[in-house]
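Subject: Sanity check before I submit

Could someone independently write out the structure tokens for this chain? I want to compare against mine line by line before I put it in a report. The sequence has 584 residues.
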Amino acid sequence: MPTTARARRQPTDDWDQLRQLVASPEQERYELLRPIVLFGQQVTDRARATGVSARSLRRKTARFAAAGMRSLFEPDPPPTPDRRLLPLGIRRAILELKAEYPPLGPFEIARICRHRFDRAVSYHTVAKVLAVEPLPLYSPRRLPRYRDTTDPVARRKAVVDLYLEGWTVKAIAGYLETTRPRVYETLQRWVDEGLPGLADRPHGPRQPARKVDLKAMAAIRRLQANPELGEFRIHAALEQMGIPLSPSTCGRILALHRALGAPRSARSTPHDPQPMPFAAQRRHQYWSVDIRYIEDHALETDKPVYVISVLENFSRALLASAISPRQDLTAYLIVLRAAVEAHGAPEVLVSDSGSVFKAKQARAIYAALGIRKEAIDQGQPWQNDIETHFNVMRRMADVHCARATTWAELQAVHERFFRDYNHQSHAAHADRPKGRRSPAVVLGWVQGAWCDPADLDRLFRLRATRLLNPGGYLRFRHWRLYGERGLAGERAAVWVHGEILTLEHETETLAQYPVVLAADGRQLRDVGEARFFVIGHASPQPFLPSLEDVEWHPAQRLMPYRPRRQRRADQPQRRLFELAERAG
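---
Independent answer below. Compare away.
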């Protein structure tokens, strides 16, 4: 076999040239050691000639003497040592946990291993173990499902055991196939009571805090004397008394009392709700006004009694209301003025087509106050929000009005209804927070367009104010008219409309006088017999003689005021001490 021709070179001992001639690192190492091994050259001399340290040369020479030519070659890399420091038991536990409950993640398994073996395990290590080692083909459940354990203590103990091993509440609920609230409840019982708290207990509380007690039952029975009150109105009345019961609870107690013989209310005709044409979006946007007839009363007269009310549509608050023996323009304007004076003027006033609401004097007042007047459709009273209020009034007050035998009792019933209605919860505000559901609270401090009292006096020209003297009389257009002795020193309003003069104090009618106006339409030519009304401000001091024994005139004509005599300026003042000056 032919050989390749080699280039002929001059032999040399120069190390730098030898390094360029060698073909492999092993040959270079051989040429480095050859003079020392074959010819016995000193290590120090060889180190000086090659530039390699003497220490390295001695080490390489010793290795060549021990291993021969093998020492010239690089040793094989040592096998990689097993760097897995995690014990086999922990690795097996990681795989068994994953096989037993697959939703467990590396974080949860690391936490469980930390609690079970008292050794910190990184979730990275857990992830590597799960990635490189196979899971067991079959891993039996250590604990049965929650529903499969018949012993109540054992199944709750399983929850506690898993929690002590480091399982999360979510993992415990999933593994035992139960709910998380049940797991939380079990753990709380174990924390509070220990192992005895894991046993079954009665479903009801040991000491139930019942809201329905004998006091509440008795209060509902007293309110149920009015059979028209339903569960919501009973709930609102009890809330006003400080007894918090839900409407459904009140309904159950009402049904219990009716089963024992309590009176029942008349069945109402169901109807579909209609959209209200004057539904307010803000306070004082719409006011509703109307007059209600009360014919069921025990007064001596057979005539009906009239309730004139002004309602604020947004809050359902009753702004002003008066019970009156008449329904004329004067009675209506008395209530309207009281509402405007206390709450300002609204944007729109809604009523039916009654004559008192569209009288010329009333329309002039609307225009001056910037109130737009709207009327509901003919024969559609449901369009007026105050009709719903009148239904509430029928339920709350009509039973008590039927028992009133005097005018004072009737007014007391109306005042109590006015107060209770405004301060009890209203069904229209059921979505508001608790304690903010009454009409008075919803209305709050918000007022309509403000009106100066002097402007109101000018607008309500039918009205004039006078001061009652100690005898209860007031002077009006050269007449002395009796109002009420119990209001001595108070101001009363005088309303003149047509041929009727009315004395009023804070929307309460004191007396009415038929009058005949003079030709100028302003002065009073004659005043007839008075009609007095019983009010709650009667004087505690009765008349000394009986009125039947003396001639008493509630209305007396007075002499007109005489003009004051003017002093003449041409008469000088005479000296008072002339004699003393002369003597001096």
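---
OP: Matches mine. For the report I'm noting this point. The chain has five domains: 18-72, 88-198, 214-259, 286-443, 462-557.
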